[in-house]
Amino acid sequence: MIGAIVTFSYGADFDRARIENVAQHARESFVGMPGLHSKVFTVDESGRRAVNFYVWDALEPAKAFFSDQLLARVTALYGVAPVVDFVDIAAIVDNAVAV
Question: What is the β-pairing status of strands 49-56 and 2-9?
């Protein structure tokens, strides 16, 4: 499994309401997305950033998702360009699912 960490860093232009609005309006578009296990939208007010975390089946669909067109669209939505990092997931703990 692959994690994608997407960081939007702000300066004085940090706007919590804008970030939360993007998350609320975008949430449904990720429900049932092929290859995507989960996505978490976050707001880090003290760090003046939004950090979103995705869990993907594999690297290929993760990289394909973050196309130049998508990056341009989220830059317009969030008001700043993101930094996208991919990591290998060693293990996941999901307490919402009984094993």
Answer: antiparallel
